[in-house]
Write a structure and sequence with these properties.
Chain lengths: 204, 201
């Protein structure tokens, strides 16, 4: 099932993480190689992207599950970039996932996470507007129901991996990052994109 | 996979035979417990027919609520659905309600309970996603549990306990009307649940 690059035998993919003088950003749950999917913070010449994805068809550098990624050596990367994937695991797996992010970061390294802000969806749902469109996306209108459980259109197409199994508020995400050992935790909301943006550092 | 064969049309026909009593189809019934049947259907005039996807709970009919082919059309007087419509994907809800409608006799009624997402949202909007909303025999229930399913149970490996969609009083009433039901009545009950009744005319 896996291509030649997608080892799932648990051995570290050492070649992918070889030092070439640049800083490494691990792009977890990267999806297909789409320009713009890497956060602009990591697009400078001093950064090298390592793409990690469970689906080998996305041609990742490392084929691994974000919940357990023994393929990634400890303290191997300078940053972890996670866009809309921590809501795709069950609530009880979140601590394990964040522990993995912490483990693979070098001391001084930083994680950048974005995920839906459940408080934004809840504002609408509490007023009975569960299925009224909240905004337009390239895939069509997105309702609070889509924000909570994943965009219905993808799930209809059989892409059940697009379903959301948990969610966060600024407060719960901040608490979970601290519990995982991160410091200088900052979670911003109200950025206009209805998402939470969290940064946190592994200090030691 | 089945110990005793309960799938298929023949099992359905056997379970649904007429013995003079009214039939209530208890969908997603889980393990047998008298209290699991809504009290409205506990009188001597009713006979319960249990339907579940899991053969281990020993239902009369083994099938999914998304496709109840083994239940004949217009064969039951009531459908009782307690906390299972939130376990299918949003796009499957019209299919499930279409099946409930199909198996009911004209004049028959569906009665269903499901979490009230608006109640959970009232907590979440004020930042209380993981604070206890109420205590259950299995432990405290948070707004996160109401939305995505009881986390402690899912953590034990019961992934089928996960909720894949949810409803408010308004969205549930609309979906029942869209499926063809009349006399739709949705009430908010308990701490965070909806109770809906609707009739096939």
């Amino acid at each position: 099932m896996l291509g030649a690059r997608g080892k799932r035998d648990g051995r570290p993919s050492s070649a992918v993480f070889a030092d070439d003088g640049r800083k490494l950003v691990l792009h977890v749950g990267c999806g297909p190689p789409v320009p713009g999917s890497l956060h602009e913070r990591f697009r400078g010449p001093e950064w090298r992207e390592v793409r990690l994805e469970i689906d080998p068809q996305m041609a990742p550098g490392v084929a691994a599950d974000v919940v357990a990624m023994p393929e990634v050596p400890s303290q191997a990367v300078d940053a972890v970039w996670s866009a809309h994937n921590i809501e795709h695991v069950f609530a009880h797996q979140v601590a394990q996932l964040l522990a993995e992010f912490f483990r693979v970061l070098r001391p001084g390294g930083e994680v950048l996470i974005t995920t839906p802000d459940l408080q934004v969806a809840a504002e609408r749902i509490a007023r009975g507007r569960l299925e009224d469109p909240l905004y337009e996306s390239p895939s069509g209108p997105v309702t609070p129901l889509d924000m909570v459980y994943g965009h219905g259109m993808y799930v209809v197409r059989g892409q059940e991996a697009m379903a959301h199994k948990t969610g966060f508020t600024a407060r719960t995400l901040e608490g979970k990052l601290r519990d995982a050992g991160f410091e200088r935790v900052e979670v911003r909301r109200n950025g206009g994109d209805r998402a939470l943006w969290a940064t946190a550092r592994r200090v030691a | 996979m089945l110990g005793r064969k309960r799938g298929g049309r023949r099992a359905g026909a056997r379970a649904l035979r007429d013995d003079g009593r009214k039939l209530v189809l208890h969908v997603g019934c889980g393990p047998f417990k008298r209290e699991r049947l809504h009290e409205r259907f506990r009188g001597p005039d009713w006979r319960e027919v249990r339907l579940d996807i899991d053969p281990d709970v020993e239902p009369d009919i083994v099938c999914s609520i998304v496709d109840m082919a083994s239940v004949a059309s217009a064969s039951v007087d009531a459908v009782w659905s307690s906390h299972n419509i939130e376990h299918v994907y949003a796009h499957e809800v019209p299919i499930v309600f279409g099946e409930f409608f199909r198996v009911l006799r004209p004049g028959g009624e569906v009665l269903l309970h499901t979490p009230d997402l608006a109640r959970a949202a009232e907590r979440i909007r004020t930042g209380r996603l993981e604070d206890a909303v109420y205590s259950s025999p299995a432990g405290p229930i948070t707004a996160l549990d109401i939305v995505y399913g009881f986390g402690d149970s899912i953590a034990l490996g019961n992934a089928f306990m996960a909720h894949k969609t949810g409803f408010t009083a308004r969205s549930l009433a609309q979906k029942l009307r869209d499926a063809g039901f009349g006399d739709v009545d949705v009430q908010r009950i308990g701490v965070a649940a909806l109770s809906a009744a609707a009739r096939k005319h």
